[in-house]
Amino acid sequence: FVRADIYKMDTYRDAIANMQSSFVVYPGTEFVFFERGKERRNSPDEIDTFDGVGAIPARPDGAESFILMDLVRSLLDKSNLL
Protein backbone atom coordinates (compact mmCIF):
# COMPACT_ATOMS: atom_id res chain seq x y z
CA PHE A 1 0.00 0.00 0.00
CA VAL A 2 1.03 3.59 -0.45
CA ARG A 3 0.97 5.91 2.57
CA ALA A 4 -1.01 8.48 0.53
CA ASP A 5 -3.84 5.92 0.17
CA ILE A 6 -4.04 5.59 3.96
CA TYR A 7 -4.24 9.38 4.32
CA LYS A 8 -7.02 9.49 1.72
CA MET A 9 -8.99 6.82 3.62
CA ASP A 10 -8.52 8.88 6.79
CA THR A 11 -9.96 11.91 4.98
CA TYR A 12 -12.96 9.90 3.77
CA ARG A 13 -13.54 8.48 7.25
CA ASP A 14 -13.54 11.96 8.79
CA ALA A 15 -15.78 13.41 6.05
CA ILE A 16 -18.55 10.80 6.24
CA ALA A 17 -20.85 11.14 9.25
CA ASN A 18 -20.78 8.24 11.73
CA MET A 19 -18.02 6.37 9.88
CA GLN A 20 -15.53 4.80 12.27
CA SER A 21 -13.18 2.98 9.91
CA SER A 22 -12.20 2.88 6.29
CA PHE A 23 -9.95 0.63 4.26
CA VAL A 24 -8.10 0.72 0.98
CA VAL A 25 -8.01 -2.59 -0.92
CA TYR A 26 -4.83 -3.06 -2.91
CA PRO A 27 -3.04 -5.85 -4.82
CA GLY A 28 -0.36 -6.59 -2.26
CA THR A 29 0.44 -8.89 0.65
CA GLU A 30 0.54 -6.73 3.79
CA PHE A 31 -2.44 -6.05 6.07
CA VAL A 32 -2.26 -2.96 8.26
CA PHE A 33 -4.70 -1.05 10.44
CA PHE A 34 -3.97 2.18 12.30
CA GLU A 35 -6.32 2.41 15.28
CA ARG A 36 -7.05 5.98 16.29
CA GLY A 37 -4.70 6.89 19.14
CA LYS A 38 -3.11 3.44 19.26
CA GLU A 39 -0.38 1.43 17.65
CA ARG A 40 -0.30 -0.09 14.19
CA ARG A 41 -2.08 -3.45 13.90
CA ASN A 42 -0.68 -6.07 11.52
CA SER A 43 -3.52 -8.58 11.77
CA PRO A 44 -7.31 -8.31 12.05
CA ASP A 45 -7.09 -10.31 15.29
CA GLU A 46 -4.98 -7.55 16.91
CA ILE A 47 -7.62 -4.83 16.45
CA ASP A 48 -9.29 -3.72 19.68
CA THR A 49 -11.81 -1.30 18.18
CA PHE A 50 -12.56 -0.62 14.54
CA ASP A 51 -11.86 3.09 14.80
CA GLY A 52 -9.16 3.99 12.29
CA VAL A 53 -7.89 3.34 8.79
CA GLY A 54 -6.29 0.36 7.11
CA ALA A 55 -5.12 -1.47 4.02
CA ILE A 56 -6.41 -4.87 2.93
CA PRO A 57 -4.36 -6.99 0.50
CA ALA A 58 -6.45 -8.60 -2.23
CA ARG A 59 -4.53 -10.04 -5.14
CA PRO A 60 -6.27 -11.38 -8.26
CA ASP A 61 -4.90 -14.89 -7.62
CA GLY A 62 -6.63 -14.94 -4.21
CA ALA A 63 -3.41 -15.71 -2.33
CA GLU A 64 -4.26 -13.35 0.53
CA SER A 65 -8.04 -13.97 0.68
CA PHE A 66 -7.78 -15.45 4.19
CA ILE A 67 -6.88 -11.98 5.51
CA LEU A 68 -10.10 -10.51 4.14
CA MET A 69 -12.11 -13.35 5.67
CA ASP A 70 -10.34 -12.84 9.03
CA LEU A 71 -11.18 -9.14 8.87
CA VAL A 72 -14.86 -9.75 8.13
CA ARG A 73 -15.05 -12.34 10.93
CA SER A 74 -13.40 -9.92 13.37
CA LEU A 75 -15.72 -7.07 12.33
CA LEU A 76 -18.78 -9.23 12.88
CA ASP A 77 -17.48 -10.54 16.17
CA LYS A 78 -16.61 -7.10 17.57
CA SER A 79 -20.00 -5.80 16.39
CA ASN A 80 -21.74 -8.65 18.21
CA LEU A 81 -23.30 -9.82 14.95
CA LEU A 82 -22.04 -13.41 15.14
Series of H and E elements: HEEEEH
The low-pLDDT segments are none
By secondary-structure content and strand pairing, the structural class works out as alpha+beta
Number of strands: 4
How far is it from the N-terminal to the C-terminal residue, by CA? 30 Å
Please state roughly what percent of the residues sit in beta strands, choosing from under 5%, 5-15%, 15-25%, 25-35%, 35-45% or over 45%.
Answer: 15-25%
Residues in helices, as a percent range: 25-40%
Main beta sheet strand tally, sense and closure: 4 strands, mixed
How would the global form be characterised? globular
- Order of strands, main sheet, comes to 1-4-2-3
Q: So how many helices?
A: 2
Provide the gyration radius in Å.
12 Å
Averaged pLDDT: 88
Q: What would your notes on this structure say?
A:
Helices cover 33% and strands 22% of the residues. The chain has 82 residues and is of the alpha+beta class. A 4-stranded mixed sheet has the order 1-4-2-3. The chain is globular and about 35 Å long. The relative contact order is 0.20.
In summary, what is this structure?
With 82 residues, the protein is an alpha+beta fold. The chain has helices at 3-15, 65-78, and strands at 21-26, 32-35, 40-41, 52-57.
Ordered list of secondary-structure elements with their pairings:
Layout: H1 3-15, E1 21-26, E2 32-35, E3 40-41, E4 52-57, H2 65-78
Parallel strand pairs: 1-4
Antiparallel strand pairs: 2-3, 2-4
